[in-house]
Amino acid sequence: MRLTILCENSVARPFGLLGEHGFACYLETPSGNYLFDTGQGQTLVPNARQLGKDLATIKALLISHGHYDHTGGLPAVLEIRDSLDIYGHPEMFSVRYWEIESRRRYLGIPFKRQYLESLGARFHLSSDLVEVGPGVFLSGEIPRRNACEQGDPQQFAVTGNGAVLRPDPVADDLSMVVRSPKGLILVVGCAHAGLVNILNYVVGKFPGEAIHAVVGGTHLGFAGEEQFEETLKAIDRTGIEKVGASHCTGLKKAARLTERLGERFFFANVGTVLEA
Questions:
Q1: What residues make up the domain containing 90?
Q2: What count of other Cβ atoms lies within 10 Å of the Cβ of residue 147?
Q3: How many structural domains comprise the chain?
């Protein structure tokens, strides 16, 4: 099993790779290849070509949540791989915004569902745990039970009847879980549900299976001290061997993770490969 980061804020090596604010990774398994998220859409295809990852071979696309920096590359993928099965949450097309410095920015998926379907997207939307392929799962909706993991107050969503949800609960925040010879690989897009909540959920859904690695955006860059410490406790409690943080982890929190986790930590930026 091989996981390769295709989109992230920074690059792991020079010679043609590009960085952008966002996340996407390419999964190779004995039963086929999969794509998790698509970044903003500017770097996915050139990085995939540079790294020798053929997007035309993917069996399915898994979407972590409906933010622009994880879904902006959808049309580019559908140009290469039409009639594609895309898995996500029923609320992934929610209308959502971010307010910062007295400005409002649209945060949601930049494209209408009907447009993407006209390009060949076949959406499979569920709030339950789904096995997308042999040993490849999309988590389903994560219960929010940890009091210290709260949403970002600068982000809000607008419901179909015009009601404003503040902060945006990002109920569509999903994670990919992969069975590997070394244990479970947990891939998070942004971990809006909170990494502690996600870890507790995965442990409950896969009893007796060790989590070998956690890879992706942890959203710890927006976390307070209590949440950061609770997250470290959860990582130790679940016996995770490797933590590859990126994207919304933030440089300061990534540096602290390096200090606290030592050799267990690595930066999951463009070009990084995890084999198991």
A1: 2-275
A2: 10
A3: 1
